[in-house]
């Protein structure tokens, strides 16, 4: 009996222990798991880590920047009196944007905005695309590493040029620097052809700044641009009027640029046969207008060169020189101010006016060369004009020219 009682008690104890375990199992709460906090954005400005408070934010798959980031990129930020309107300015660009607006004003022109300006924790934020689209800044986002890279291309390009750091220039190009626009600054810093070649390799269009390369007489740059095979020598910028690139190689210019410290400077760019020869080697021929400019400036060698490289001795130009014999006066014009436009004038007539007014040795030599070496017809000249030239030829003991004038009817 005692043995049976012991077994019953043991069974009861086991049942009680199971009940307690079951009860405890019901009261233990389930373990809750939480998602990992988003990885903070690492910001770099011009390749150096930057700490901003508040910092950039990723929201709705858009990177938003605090206003301090814009200031760091050289953009002037003006907050309107209503605290919801922003005006962003950099050089010639002006952007006006309102909080939450779907449009934006860029230099007084309204455009649609993909993502609006927002307010986060009381601070105004703008979508990062504004930096790249309207101000030409570099914006690179690595979603895997959560690194946002901002690059002020303008200041960094100046820095690369001042340091003569071609490798850094290549890095900027690789990160999105506008290759075509770099050619302008490369020329202003008078860097060598390797810089032009790097820009061309990155996809630069050689045409927009070819004019600057020619007038600044940077032969290495001109050659590099021509070697691209993409320069259209017959399509010239409006600033050239009807001048050819050969006229630009002939003319003397004062050009503005930068020294190695980034300070503005000016330098005189002389005439360049080297560049003229490059242009001819790539298919450009001189025109009567090119020859006229050399003749008007009494540059005998250049006049000869132009006539020997395609200029028509019997051609005509816009009427750019006139003589008022009653008032004993001569007037010169350029292509933009040519008198009686679109009236034209034969090259030999222009030569007569210049020589008849000032029979200098250079002008007499040009007349002789035009008539004898290049066989310009004297028929466009009037009888009084022929007679005047005959008198000048005889006075200067120029027998061959005298004979040619007599043969043409001069008395």
Automatic annotation (TrEMBL):
Q: Which domain of life is it from?
A: Bacteria
* Listed name of the protein: Copper amine oxidase N-terminal domain-containing protein
Could you say which residues form the signal peptide? 1-22
Show where the Copper amine oxidase-like N-terminal domain sits: 45-149
Q: Which UniProt keywords apply?
A: Signal
| InterPro entries in the record | Ankyrin_rpt-contain_sf (IPR036770), Cu_amine_oxidase-like_N (IPR012854), Mao_N_sf (IPR036582)
Tell me yes or no: is Iron-sulfur among this UniProt entry's keywords. Answer: no
């Amino acid at each position: 009996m005692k043995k049976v009682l012991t077994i019953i008690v043991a069974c009861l104890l086991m049942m009680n222990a199971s009940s307690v375990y079951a009860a405890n199992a019901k009261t233990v709460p389930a373990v809750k798991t939480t998602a990992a906090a988003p990885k903070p954005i690492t910001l770099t400005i011009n390749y150096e880590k930057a700490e901003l408070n508040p910092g950039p934010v990723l929201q709705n798959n858009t990177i938003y920047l605090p206003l301090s980031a814009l200031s760091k990129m050289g953009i002037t930020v003006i907050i309107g009196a209503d605290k919801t309107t922003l005006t962003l300015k950099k050089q010639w660009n002006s952007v006006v944007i309102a909080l939450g607006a779907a449009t934006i004003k860029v230099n007084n022109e309204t455009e649609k905005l993909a993502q609006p300006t927002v307010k986060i924790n009381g601070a105004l934020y703008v979508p990062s695309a504004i930096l790249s689209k309207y101000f030409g800044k570099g914006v690179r986002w690595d979603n895997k590493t959560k690194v946002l890279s901002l690059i002020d291309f303008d200041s960094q390009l100046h820095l690369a040029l001042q340091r003569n750091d071609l490798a850094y220039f290549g890095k900027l190009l690789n990160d999105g620097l506008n290759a075509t626009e770099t050619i302008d600054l490369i020329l202003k810093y008078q860097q060598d052809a390797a810089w032009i070649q790097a820009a061309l390799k990155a996809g630069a269009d050689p045409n927009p700044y070819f004019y600057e390369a020619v007038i600044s007489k940077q032969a290495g740059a001109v050659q590099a641009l021509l070697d691209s095979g993409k320069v259209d020598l017959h399509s010239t910028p409006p600033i050239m009027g009807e001048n050819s690139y050969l006229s630009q190689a002939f003319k003397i210019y004062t050009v503005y640029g930068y020294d190695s410290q980034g300070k503005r400077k000016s330098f005189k760019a002389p005439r360049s046969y080297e560049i003229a020869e490059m242009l001819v080697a790539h298919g450009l021929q001189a025109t009567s207008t090119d020859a006229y400019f050399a003749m008007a400036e009494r540059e005998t060698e250049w006049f000869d060169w132009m006539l020997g490289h395609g200029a028509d001795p019997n051609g005509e130009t816009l009427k750019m020189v006139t003589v008022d014999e009653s008032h004993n006066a001569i007037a010169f014009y350029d292509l933009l101010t040519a008198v009686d436009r679109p009236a034209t004038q034969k090259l030999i007539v222009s030569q007569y006016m210049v020589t008849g007014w000032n029979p200098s040795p250079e002008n007499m030599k040009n007349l002789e060369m035009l008539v004898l070496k290049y066989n310009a017809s004297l028929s466009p000249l009037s009888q009084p004009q022929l007679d005047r030239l005959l008198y000048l030829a005889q006075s200067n003991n120029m027998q061959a020219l005298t004979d040619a004038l007599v043969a043409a009817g001069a008395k």
